[in-house]
Amino acid sequence: MAKVDINWARTRDYPEGKDVKSRDSERFIIVDEKGMQLLHDQIDFARKVKAVHDQTLHFEDYIFITPENGKPYYVEMLNDHINAVAKKMDKKINVSPHMFRHMFATHASANGVDSLQLRKFLGHADIDMTNFYTHGSLEGAENVMRLTEKYRN
């Protein structure tokens, strides 16, 4: 496993990045060997795209870029692609990349991840925000029943 720290955010509005909301908002990701390989593959792809546009990929550059112009692949573009897929599946589906974050938090909580550890992993300063992310589910209820079975007998 490898830890990658993300201590500033770059978006379309802040292409050079801006500080995170608070010290507790510092983000990091944990990736396994497969995740590291995927990141290396993406960096190689970004280098090739930059080369096509007579540019060099630098350390501080975005690695998720569009092949057409070598510009950053913004979350709005991902939202558009996800919405296009959702419309083909069922017009009632409303999804976004951020919803995957909520889904991860819900599944982690339902499968026994401690709320305080999850709060830190998600980069939340307040446990209430983590609780907002972890929506109750049938899976979670069943897990609570399994975890508490020995205390109910």
| Structural class estimated from helices and strands | mainly alpha
Radius of gyration, in Å, reads: 19 Å
Low-confidence runs of at least 5 consecutive residues: none
Q: What average pLDDT do the residues reach?
A: 77
Report on the architecture of this protein.
52% of the residues lie in helices and 9% in strands. The strands form two sheets. It has a two-stranded antiparallel ribbon with strand order 1-4. A two-stranded antiparallel sheet has the order 2-3. Helix 3 runs parallel beside helix 6 and helix 4 crosses helix 5. The longest helix has 20 residues. It is elongated, with a radius of gyration of 19 Å. The model has no long low-confidence stretch (mean pLDDT 77).
Keywords:
153 residues; mainly alpha; two-stranded antiparallel ribbon; 6 helices; 4 strands; 52% helix; elongated
How does the SSE layout of this entry go?
Blueprint: E1 2-6, E2 8-9, E3 18-19, E4 27-31, H1 33-52, H2 75-89, H3 97-110, H4 115-122, H5 127-133, H6 138-152
Antiparallel strand pairs: 1-4, 2-3
